[in-house]
Amino acid sequence: MHATRRRTTAVVAATVLATPLLLAASPNHGHPSGHDPAKDAAKLSRQLVRASSGKDAYRHLQQFQAIADSAGGHRAAGSPGHDASAAYVYQQLRHAGYRVAYDTFDFVYTETLAEKLSVVSPTPRDITIRAMTYTTSTKTGGITAALAAVPVDAATGCEASDYNNDDGVLSGTLGNVASGWIPTGGVTQADGERLVADLAKVDEVTVSFEIREFQEPRTTRNVIAETRGGNAARTVMLGAHLDSVTAGPGINDNGSGSAGLLEVALELAKTHRTPANKVRFAWWSAEENGLKGSEAYVAKLDAAQQKQIALYLNFDMIASPNGVQFVFDGDDSDGVGSGPGPEGPPNWSAT
Fold it and tell me: Strand ranges (DSSP E) for the chain?
């Protein structure tokens, strides 16, 4: 990884942590006259930015890579690679003095076995396709059949607005096993448009299609760590998903977010400062399967525990050269989303 990007991995996490530290410094009448908690928090955040080095964050990435190399090339949830990654994070945090726990949950592990698509006639060619997580499978060897163009209307789920039409092969998850009605894969928009154009020119386009996915119920775990002190009623939470896809070690997605967050947590512990409000860190599992780890965690919280979380900050692929910072419009106040999310504390948002 480029040296500048290594530095960014740590500094992005440290800089953004200034927000919860300032939040944690809300003035109250218990402070002696002349004491300014906001200034103290700002000073602490600057200290963390200086202390969180790219070199130290990079050593966590090296560890994640070494784990993947020894575990089949990936750190996917439910695999030995993820188990070892979670154990590494757990041990680092426990040694630093945090209150650390595993948050265990069940999910369906998936691994792609085959993803092939080709035009057989009239003009043979191969097309890149990606299996959707939780797809059902074709038989071994796939099927050969005439291509059908689905009508574009509100009843088919094939409107342009239903998909992310960015460049590249469409990939993602169907959400759960129950949603996998038929073998499903994604292609690029350009390949899709060419197939539709082919159908308009000839009576029949024949394709060969094979999508197969291994699926198995497994158990995995999030890693949750929090400061031993601080006001739990205004908990500030920071998270990053620790799992990779099965196709690789996930060093940027999302080893970078996990490493940056881990390094900042370790540097915060070294200050021996207790924030006014509790700070909680989470390393999620099975995010690549559809946010399974974070959803499982939230589902276990009762209403009172949910309301204690004043702010949530998420770190994903922070080593990307084109990274951005977003605020999640949880209550859909802008009116451009799919409606409000689950109820949380007043004015609650995530970034």
Answer: 99-121, 125-127, 130-131, 143-146, 185-186, 206-226, 231-241, 277-284, 309-314
Cα-Cα end-to-end distance for the chain: 25
The matching CATH number, chosen from 3.40.1190.20, 3.40.50.300, 1.10.8.100, 3.50.30.30, for 109-215 is 3.50.30.30
Gap between the Cα atoms of 349 and 332, Å rounded: 10
125-127 and 231-241 beta bridge pairing: unpaired
Positions marked active-site? 287
Q: What is the pLDDT of residues 103-152, one digit of tens each?
A: 999 999 999 999 999 999 999 999 999 999 999 999 999 999 999 988 77
CATH of domain 3-98+227-314: 3.40.630.10
Residues 6+ apart with CB under 8 A from 312: 237, 238, 239, 348, 350, 351
